[in-house]
Design a protein that fits this description.
It comes from Caldicellulosiruptor acetigenus (strain ATCC 700853 / DSM 12137 / I77R1B). It holds the Pfam family RAMPs. Keywords: Antiviral defense. InterPro entries: CRISPR-assoc_prot_TM1795, RAMP_III_fam. A 5-stranded antiparallel β-sheet has the order 2-3-1-5-4. It contains 10 helices and 10 strands. Helix 2 crosses helix 3. Strand 4 and strand 5 form a beta hairpin. By secondary structure, the chain is of the alpha+beta class. It is elongated and about 75 Å long. It has a domain of about 220 residues.
C-alpha cells in the first residue's frame, strides 16, 4: 500500500497565536494543525469541488458518526457488512484503501470525514516533527486601543488581558506568536493521490487564516509542500493576486490593504475577529442583524499590524465568508465603513504619539 510523506510549510505573512482548551499557548500541537487542514479541505471540497461535507451540530462541531451511516440500496447495510461484501466479491481494486473509499461512497460518508476521521473512524492523516519560530511580545508592548469601539467606555485592555494573559502559561505577561511553521505529513498513497495532492495544489497560491483563539491571533498564511515550488518572500503583488485564480474562491475571501498609516508608536496590534468589537449588550440587535448570532465569528478579520523592511506600516482587513457559519454574507457597505473607521483610528493613534 505504501505511505506518502511530505513536508508542509506554512509561510506566515503575519504570525499567529493559538491556545488549547485551557487557553494555554505552550506549543503548536498536531491536533491543531489537523484541525486547520480539515477546515480548509472542507472549504475546498464544498466551494470548489461542490461536494457534500461533514454534518455539523448546532454548535458548529462535526457530528459525523460512521455507525449512523447506512447504504442507500434499501437494505440499510452497515459499514462492516458492505466491506465484507466487497472483499468476498474480489472486485478489481488496486489496494484496500480503494475498497474502503468505495464503501464510504456507498454509505454517503463525506470525504473530509474519510480523510480526517469522525466518530468510529480514524484519520488517514498523521502529523509529525513540527518546527516553528517564536516571537514573544510583552503586554506593555501591545496597543490596547485595538480592537476598538465607537463607545469610549469599551474596555479593550481588560478583554485582551483576560483572553491572552490570564492563565497559568502567561504569568510573565507575555504572549508567544508563531512564525514559519513546518511539519511532516504522512498519509497512505491512495488518499494522497486521490484527494490530498489536488488539495495542496489548489492552496499553493492562496492566502488563508490559521490559528486564533477567543477572537485573537489569526495569522495570514501561505501553505505549500516543500519542493512544489521555491518559497520566496511574499510581496504585495502576490497578496493581491493570490485569490484571483478561481471565481468561487473570490466569493469566499477578500483582503483589502490599509496603507500609508502614520502610526509612530513602537507597539504591536494583534489580529482579531470583528465579533469582539460587538460584544456589548446594547449592540446585540445591530450585530445579529448584520453579522449573525452572538458567539459566532463574524466574517471580518483584522490582521496584525505589519512593518516592512522599509518601515512602511500597513494592515489588512479581511472578509471571510465562512461557508459553514450560517451567517449572512457581509454587505459591501459595512465592510467599507469598518475599513474607513479602522484607517481613521490607526492614524489618530499615530498622531497622538508624535
Amino acid at each position: 500500500m505504501g505511505r506518502k510523506e511530505v513536508t508542509v510549510k506554512l509561510e506566515t505573512i503575519t504570525p499567529l497565536w493559538t491556545g488549547d482548551a485551557w487557553l494555554q499557548n505552550k506549543k503548536i500541537r498536531p491536533s491543531s494543525l489537523i484541525g486547520s487542514l480539515r477546515f480548509w479541505f472542507s472549504v475546498y471540497w464544498k466551494v470548489i469541488i461542490n461536494k457534500n461535507t461533514e454534518k455539523l451540530n448546532d454548535k458548529n462541531v462535526i457530528a459525523d458518526d460512521l455507525r449512523e451511516f447506512k447504504d442507500l440500496r434499501g437494505k440499510k447495510a452497515t459499514f462492516r457488512q458492505i466491506l465484507f461484501e466487497r472483499i468476498a466479491k474480489r472486485e478489481d481494486y488496486k489496494c484496500f484503501d480503494e475498497v474502503l473509499d468505495d464503501v464510504f461512497e456507498e454509505l454517503g460518508l463525506p470525504v473530509p470525514s474519510r480523510l480526517f476521521g469522525c466518530t468510529g473512524w480514524k484519520s488517514r492523516v498523521d502529523i509529525r516533527r513540527i518546527s516553528y519560530k517564536e516571537e514573544e511580545i510583552e503586554s506593555k508592548n501591545l496597543d490596547f486601543k485595538f480592537p476598538f469601539s465607537k463607545d469610549s467606555k469599551f474596555n479593550t485592555e481588560f478583554w485582551i488581558k483576560k483572553s491572552l494573559f490570564n492563565n497559568e502559561n502567561n504569568n510573565e505577561n507575555k504572549v508567544v506568536l508563531y512564525k514559519n511553521i513546518e511539519f511532516t505529513l504522512k498519509a497512505p498513497n491512495y488518499w494522497w493521490d486521490r484527494y490530498l495532492s489536488d488539495f495542496f495544489s489548489f492552496y499553493k497560491d492562496k492566502i488563508i487564516l490559521v490559528g486564533g483563539k477567543l477572537s485573537f491571533g489569526f495569522g495570514m498564511v501561505k501553505m505549500m509542500i516543500e519542493g512544489s515550488q521555491e518559497i520566496q518572500e511574499i510581496n504585495e503583488q502576490e497578496i493581491n493576486e493570490s485569490n484571483k485564480n478561481d471565481a468561487n474562491w473570490n466569493d469566499i475571501i477578500r483582503m483589502d490593504k490599509i496603507e500609508n498609516i502614520k502610526y509612530e508608536k513602537q507597539c504591536n496590534v494583534l489580529g482579531y475577529n470583528f465579533r469582539y468589537f460587538l460584544r456589548r449588550e446594547e449592540e446585540k440587535k445591530y450585530r445579529e442583524k448584520n453579522f449573525g448570532k452572538q458567539g459566532v465569528a463574524s466574517s471580518i478579520y483584522v490582521s496584525n499590524l505589519i512593518r516592512d523592511s522599509s518601515n512602511h506600516i500597513y494592515i489588512y482587513l479581511i472578509n471571510f465568508n465562512n461557508p459553514f457559519s450560517g451567517n449572512k454574507n457581509l454587505s459591501e457597505k459595512i465592510f467599507n465603513n469598518y475599513k474607513e473607521l479602522l484607517n481613521e483610528k490607526l492614524k489618530s493613534e499615530g498622531d497622538r504619539s508624535v
